[in-house]
Design goal:
Helices cover 35% and strands 16% of the residues. It has 389 residues and is of the alpha/beta class. Strand 12 and strand 13 form a beta hairpin.
């Protein structure tokens, strides 16, 4: 009986490590509930709750979540001076890079609308309160739910595992549905996204611009989407390995910008550092130079740190040694070098702060509050407004 108990303990530990490893790779933003608990509620006691709309026309187009359910979005209608302005925000939430992780994912809100919240709070850039979101509060504000696992770019299937990789079709079905609801008449349109959604906003930026007449003012915003093809603490490339699996499994290569794929391999063209210089539409990049997700899951993941040397540091930078801080500072320098050419364009904008953070537009405390991060005395929301005007 004692031996049997030990067997179950070993199995439980192995399962916990498996799940932990999966979450390290596949949760690239705080959940809505976590974000609310971590401080949003303190700055917004009564956030607007917006219901989920499933896209009925999506099924006929094969635009479905991993498990075959309908995709959806949350929309709060604009009014007054914002009635004909649209903000489309693409949800983040990591990626799945093999059949096992995608099968796991399809039983969560990241892979099935069955598990999505029926209502979510709109805060930060999605808030309806003028004092907390002065420039977008009365726009049409839409959050498109993420249920494909490839930043809205895949288009294939795995019949044996009953997996539908239809991110590109979901993207098109959502925008076509919103066009029919008035977005085609937009005077101004902003495509934004957080984390994996921030990467998607870069990948789809020019495509989004081309959906509107030239008279419409269209721009893009990537929040925490500047994922670097960086070396991890073991000398490997953890994120490149992950992306290679995502691109190959989900048929992403067919939907990547051709201006990149004619010169580089498809996996390289999933990294924004190889895309941003060729985007024609004005783009604003918001990123923490010490992006907490990249540090924890790309730079110093447990898989690259088997002896746990980085365990404390990766979770709390105050516990990093001098050599570890130098390594992280090297990551910051690499990020600044990546955006150097991009920053020279007058059409583009940047807000790169030195916070240990990930996703800042939907959190009220980082988006627009008395103690929000500032660069040259400009908080994030004002910085974006100035650059995007």
């Amino acid at each position: 009986m004692m031996k049997l108990s030990w067997v179950w303990i070993v199995i439980a530990i192995a399962f916990l490590q498996l799940v932990t490893g999966f979450l390290d790779f596949n949760e690239t933003e705080l959940s809505l509930i976590e974000a609310y608990d971590y401080g949003v509620s303190k700055l917004n006691y009564n956030p607007l709750m917006v219901g989920l709309t499933l896209i009925a026309s999506a099924s006929a187009k094969g635009a479905v979540c991993l498990d075959g359910t309908l995709p959806g979005y949350h929309w709060h209608r604009g009014y007054g001076s914002g009635a004909n302005n649209w903000l489309i925000h693409l949800e983040g939430g990591g990626w799945c890079n093999n059949v096992r992780t995608c099968v796991y994912r399809k039983k969560t809100r990241r892979g099935s609308s069955t598990y999505m919240e029926k209502q979510i709070p709109f805060t930060g850039i999605l808030s309806d309160k003028a004092d907390q979101n002065p420039d977008f509060f009365n726009w049409n504000r839409v959050k498109v739910r993420y249920c494909d696992g490839a930043s809205f770019t895949g288009d294939t299937e795995n019949k044996a595992a009953k997996l539908q990789f239809r991110g590109q079709r979901i993207w098109l079905a959502a925008t076509e549905d919103l066009m029919s609801r008035g977005m085609r008449n937009a005077k101004q349109a902003l495509l934004s996204g957080c984390s994996a959604g921030g990467l998607a906003s870069i990948l789809h930026c020019d495509e989004f611009r081309n959906m509107f007449p030239r008279t419409s003012k269209v721009k893009c915003l990537s929040d925490a989407g500047l994922f670097l093809d960086a070396v991890d603490v073991s000398g490997g490339r953890t994120l490149r390995s992950l992306y290679n699996g995502v691109v190959g499994l989900q048929g992403v290569q067919h939907n990547l910008p051709r201006i990149c794929t004619i010169h580089r391999d498809p996996t390289s063209c999933f990294f924004p550092q190889n895309l941003i210089s060729n985007i024609r539409t004005p783009l604003f990049i918001l990123n923490a130079a010490y992006d907490s997700w990249q540090i924890q899951s790309s730079i110093a993941p447990p898989s690259a740190d088997p002896h746990g040397y980085w365990h404390e540091c990766r979770l709390n930078h105050a516990k990093c040694s001098a050599s570890q801080m130098r390594f992280l500072q090297g990551f910051r320098i690499e990020m600044l070098n990546v955006i150097k050419g991009f920053s020279q364009s007058r059409e583009n904008g940047l807000f790169i702060n030195s916070c240990f953070a990930h996703c800042q537009t939907e959190r009220q405390d980082t988006w627009f509050a008395a103690n929000s991060p500032e660069i040259r005395n400009k908080p994030l929301e004002i910085g974006i407004l100035t650059e995007q005007a």
